[in-house]
């Protein structure tokens, strides 16, 4: 998992912004043009494009251009990295909680 550290840093940095999470939520319903996406957020197009570039840099979305229209598509495989990391953290903490529960209940197995 450590080999994914730089990718996870970029991923979570991009996910830290509510506008970007809104874009991801919207793209979960299917591809959309940048213009359509921008219309859903109260900001100028240049400001919105910064969010699109951040999501694209993190690999969360892909864009393609046909004529004058740039279309955004969600990259679900990239989001799976965050899901895998969170699942790993959940597993670690559940194991620790289970050991603490066994210790407190006095049922911990003797390691020797």
Automatic annotation (TrEMBL):
Keywords: DNA-binding. Residues 1-94 form the HTH arsR-type domain. CDD domains: HTH_ARSR. It comes from the Bacteria. One of its GO terms (molecular function) is DNA binding. InterPro entries: ArsR-like_HTH, HTH_ArsR_DNA-bd_dom, WH-like_DNA-bd_sf, WH_DNA-bd_sf. This is DNA-binding transcriptional ArsR family regulator. It comes from Actinoplanes lobatus. The lineage of its organism: Bacteria, Bacillati, Actinomycetota, Actinomycetes, Micromonosporales.
